[in-house]
UniProtKB/TrEMBL annotation:
This is CBM6 domain-containing protein. Keywords: Carbohydrate metabolism, Glycosidase, Hydrolase, Polysaccharide degradation, Signal, Xylan degradation. GO terms for biological process: xylan catabolic process. The keyword Transmembrane helix does not apply. Belongs to the glycosyl hydrolase 43 family. It comes from Catenuloplanes atrovinosus. The record marks 155 as: Important for catalytic activity, responsible for pKa modulation of the active site Glu and correct orientation of both the proton donor and substrate. SMART domains: CBD_IV. It comes from the Bacteria. Residues 331-454 form the CBM6 domain. GO terms for molecular function: carbohydrate binding; hydrolase activity, hydrolyzing O-glycosyl compounds. Residues 1-29 form the signal peptide. InterPro entries: CBM6 (IPR005084), Cellulose-bd_IV (IPR006584), Galactose-bd-like_sf (IPR008979), Glyco_hydro_43 (IPR006710), Glyco_hydro_beta-prop_sf (IPR023296), Glycosyl_Hydrlase_43_Enz (IPR052176).
Length: 456
């Protein structure tokens, strides 16, 4: 079925030629984070030693914010990201008709709440829905079967304060908040409007209707007793600015620019976390081939707060954040754990999770900072192929670098008919970037679900 879908997509792309084709040239790192699809509106969450990254999904060839689903990724080291597919979509909300726009996931008492803007089928206005799951990777279900709040505005963000009180903020062109009850799916005390003063949110010139820089995409959090509201400023093109306050409801003081207007997307959208001793700034741009304002990609930079808690200017880079840790090749790794890839797509696997697929000759995956230690002896992978199969070439130094081993993948009779292949490897010692290069004849070769090395 999915091959048919792919064929139909390929035919459609003859009309709208915007398929992501990441050049197979020299390996590079590591922004944007996801190369398999266009992603937007990053919302990171730290949970149990991993960063979960929730994004929107700009459809290939979009000429508007055509977004039907959200996506989830996770990483333990900030460079190798595991694709968890789409745990929630517009279809999750029976009362919504379109627009899987910018949201945020927060955890409370072992449940994960995903606040999102969608268009209400009944009113045609943007409303805030809330999905819920017992797992950070979903699946998420509609928590209340109706909008949590609806006033035609977008981009929810949630702060759970140290006293346990949770706040939901959102808005474009205004800025609003409610006090969430401990159930996280209802609120008390009504809807409050935050005054958009120039002292609080900076001065915009040339738009009498919008005197402050605040545009959309608030990201509210507390750090060392100071409350931050990081937001997309001044349309268009947007830049990322921020305000701070002594409390969750203000008064806000404008603090200036974090990320100047850059990249080839006229929107930007920020998410900030602290993780394993570092601070990280997520954003989006149009950096992938075919990228732009409606075909965006999520990226990340590491930064250090100034001593007084202010945030330095952060610029977009191709390098991205440095790796924070290493990857263990002697534990089972999902094939969809990727630092960089070329030509690769992902899809749901029959046994759960995702697999990589749609692999043509020469496509590859880079996995960064793989800690081989004293040396690996063999490589094992779970593979499937409804075609003729091919080879997994294990390379070091680049996708066409030194070959450390080659595993032959047979035909298995189906794209989800899995078998295990193994092959000896040599020269894999220390901590190296590993390239899995897929080789064979023409057309799609095979799928890979997972892989693992054994030690020497
Ligand atoms: O992705 C759709 C909209 O674009 C988001 O809701 C805004 O924040 C902007 O990024």
């Amino acid at each position: 079925m999915r091959r048919l879908t792919t064929l139909l997509c390929a035919l459609a792309l003859l009309v709208v030629p915007a398929l992501i084709v990441v050049p197979a040239g020299p390996a590079r790192a590591d922004n944007p984070i996801v190369q398999t699809i266009y992603t937007a509106d990053p919302a990171p969450l730290v949970h149990n030693g991993r960063v979960y990254l929730y994004t929107g999904h700009d459809e290939d060839g979009s000429t508007w914010f055509t977004m039907r689903e959200w996506r989830a990724y996770s990483s333990a080291d900030m460079v190798n990201w595991t694709d968890h597919g789409s745990p929630m979509s517009v279809a999750t909300f029976s009362w919504a008709s379109a627009d899987a726009w910018a949201g945020q996931v927060v955890e409370r008492n072992g449940r994960f709440y995903w606040y999102v803007p969608v268009t209400s089928r009944a009113t045609g206005r943007m409303a805030i829905g809330v999905g819920v799951s017992s797992s950070p990777t979903g699946p998420f279900t509609d928590a209340i079967g109706r909008p949590l709040v609806e006033n035609g505005e977008i981009d929810p963000t949630v702060l759970i304060d140290t006293d346990g009180q949770a706040y939901l903020y959102w808005g474009n062109p205004n800025l609003w908040y409610v006090r969430l009850n401990t159930d996280m799916v209802s609120y008390s005390g009504g809807v409050h409007q935050i005054p958009l003063t120039t002292a609080g949110f900076g001065t915009r010139t040339g738009d009498a209707n919008r005197p402050t820089l605040y545009e959309e995409g608030p990201w509210v959090y507390r750090r060392n007793g100071l409350y931050y509201n990081v937001f997309a400023a001044k349309c268009c093109s947007e830049f990322i600015a921020y305000s701070t306050a002594p409390g969750p409801t203000g008064p806000w003081t404008y603090r200036g620019t974090i990320m100047p207007t850059q990249g080839t997307s006229f929107t930007n959208h920020a998410g900030i976390i602290d993780f394993k001793g570092g601070s990280y700034f997520f954003y989006h741009n149009g950096a992938l081939p075919g990228g732009g304002g409606f075909t965006r990609s999520v990226a990340v930079e590491k930064f250090t707060y100034n001593a007084d808690g202010t945030i330095p200017t952060i610029t977009m880079t191709e390098a991205g954040a440095p790796q924070n840790g290493t990857l263990d090749p002697y534990a089972r790794q999902e094939a969809e754990t990727i630092a960089w890839s070329s030509g690769v797509e992902t899809e749901p696997a029959s046994g759960g999770g995702m697999n990589v697929g749609f692999l043509d000759n020469g496509d590859y995956i880079k996995v960064k900072g793989v800690a081989f230690g004293t040396g690996a002896a063999s490589f094992t992978a779970r593979v499937a192929s409804a075609a003729a199969g091919g080879r997994i070439e294990l390379r070091i130094g680049g996708p066409t670098g030194t070959t450390a081993g080659t595993c032959t993948v047979p035909a298995t009779g189906g794209w989800q008919t899995w078998t295990t292949v193994s092959c000896p490897v040599s020269g894999l010692t220390g901590t190296r970037d590993l390239y899995l290069r897929f080789a064979g004849g023409s057309g799609y070769l095979f799928n890979v679900d997972s892989w693992q090395f054994t030690g020497g």
